[in-house]
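Input for the complex:
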Amino acid sequence: MTSAALRAPALLLRAVAYEFRKRIQFRAGFFVREVLNGTVEPLVMLFVYTALYGSAAAIAGPGAGPGAGPGAGSEVGSDPGSDPGAAAVALGGWTYPEIIQYVAGLVVVRKLIFHSRALDLATEIFEGRVTKYLVMPFRFFVLHQGRFLQFTLMQVVVAGLVWLIGYAVAPDHWLVPVSAAATLQAGTLVLMGSYCCFLIFFTLNAMAFWLDVVWSLLVMAWFVIGFTGGALVPVSQMPAAFYGVLSFGFPYWMITAPIELLMGRLGTEDFLFGAALVAVQLVALEVLRRWVWRRGLARYVGAGM
Amino acid sequence: MSTLDSGGPSGPQEPGVQRGQSPRGIASALRWGLAVERQYVRIGFVRKSQFRVEFINQVLMDLCFYAAFILTFEILYGLGGTEALTLGGWTHEEMRVYMGMVFVADGLFMTFLGQQWHFGQDLKNGNLDSIRVRPGPTAFLYFFQRFSPEGLTNLLFGCGWLAFALAGVAPELVEPLTLLWALPCAAVVIAWSQVFLMLSYNVVEFWLLNSDVGHLVSMLVTSFGERPLEVYPGAVGRVLMFVLPVAGMAWYPASLVLGRLEPGFALGYPLVLIAFAVLVTRVFRRGLRRYESAMG
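Predicted:
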């Protein structure tokens, strides 16, 4: 019993070390996958918001941003951030400087969120390779938890580097946390949410026991998580009806809420409420994962496809 | 070796094409290309008839993407509480047309060019051998081989959204007669752009094998092209217009249909797309000469 309890953490550590070696083996691929991934959409989002706030400022009156009003369609390069009129305009409760900070926070937060490509369980099931793990004297799930841990440790470093680079390049616009406590609270929520993503992606991968292909489910799940979390528009900027519903889901507490905590728009009470909400969903997802895994194993014959 | 007909030695042979030889002449090449594509379509339907749940999943997946895209812009335009709010000069109604073009471009890509996601891996494993020995353009035979019925379904959804968006645009902006010639032109430009942009992402793989760089460039360029070019700073907009002409994917077609272009620019811009296609094809051929059956 004691040796079994010791074996699991030792295995977890070994799995983490192995996953690290695997990830950094191909340096160009590592750079593309882990460093650049997740930066494109926030960048595009920033350009869209710049144009939108420029237009809103032009409508608001004199002193507004240049070249972005109605009829100025061919003009590019408007910069409402440099214009006091545009900076004062609030859309859905967010000013332009706040949106810039949100996008900066989004770049960093997205680095920490576990993504579907980090698991290959479905392939293992399709090819009947799960069998070899089932005969080994440990829980198969520990190997995947090792992968999650490796992902998180590596991405914390990557996210830290990205934050430093952003701060060095644009210190006036970049998101600087309001306090160390807010950083800890935001980090906790992001990591809890990331583990929820991990459980969802594991469960969807386990659907390979029944389905022939599962990648479309994984992509679909990310579309839903990304949109409902605020990867495209901050949830608190959405209409009240959307916000009312989405603020109960873990994606909101994984993306929008942590950034708002870092900005000081949310406080400790919000964090406690969010952490409790996400904890409940995390437990529910774990129960679902176990149930799907057991049902899947019950029909698994080890032959693959 | 059977070449044009996937049906084996007794399969149909297109006029003007000798078995085992490349098609000669434009008409013959077109007939040959259509015959090959017909087989790819048939195989695509046969394959998907075996994966029925997957078919539904993929349709739903793309609909999720479209829904997130539509909702995002509906929310953004709703933020100002006024119809006067624009995105780089694009009104809400015009933006819906723009989104329609994006969906059509995405649908075309998913329907015909899905194989491009496997190019890096196939290059690494030497899977191009069976394609290269066939008498015909390698790029066409390789990239068009995975016809997707679910992509076609989503293409129809995209067309439906485009029709809805065009119906919502003020009649003085889009005349029905203009649509008669502008829509087919837009469709051709979208298809042309998608094919050669896709080729440009993938040529990188010849030099940086299976590196994901192609996928990153694809994601980067596609994400940028999904928004009107006017929202980007001048230099970025010009790169997307003339260097990596993503403008052909949605910006030019939408602007053409909505009458937002100067006549001279509308006529001249396709030359940029043609020049880009010639350049990319040459680089692709050069890359193909580096291919050594198993490169990784």
